[in-house]
Amino acid sequence: MKQEHLGIDEETDALAFPIDGREELPPGPPRQLGDAVLCPQVVGEAWRPPLVHALLHLLGYEHGSDMETREMELTG
After folding, report:
1. Element (H, E) at 51
2. Could you give the angle at the alpha carbon of 17 between the alpha carbons of 44 and 65, nearest 5°?
3. 2 vs 9: CA distance, rounded Å
4. N or C: at which end does the chain have fewer Cβ atoms within 10 angstroms?
């Protein structure tokens, strides 16, 4: 699936598909963000960190120190 959507030929634990692209999130009540897809064969019982990672992407985070800090806050 990662090859098909990102052009990267490797296993992946999670993918995020934003419903409205990468536009900045407006203030106000939550809205539908998109889909987070987990691969059970890759994540096994350790599903929480990959799910948090995918959801943070849907919230607009990019890979880097801000995302890593937020992941640590949410997953311990």
Report:
1. helix 48-58
2. 75
3. 7
4. C
Residue 60: name the closest of 20, 22, 34, 27 by CA. 22
Find the helix packing angle between 48-58 and 65-75, rounded to 10°. Answer: 130
Q: Are 74 and 54 in contact (CB under 8 A)?
A: no
How far is residue 76's CA from residue 73's CA, in Å, rounded to a whole number?
6
Are 62 and 49 within 8 A, CB to CB?
A: no
pTM above 0.85, yes or no: no
In tens, the pLDDT along 50-75 reads 999 999 998 889 999 999 999 999 99
36: alpha, beta or left, given left = phi > 0 and alpha = psi -120 to 50?
Answer: beta
Q: How far apart are CA 43 and CA 18, in angstroms?
A: 21
Q: Which two tokens stand for residue 18?
A: 């934003």
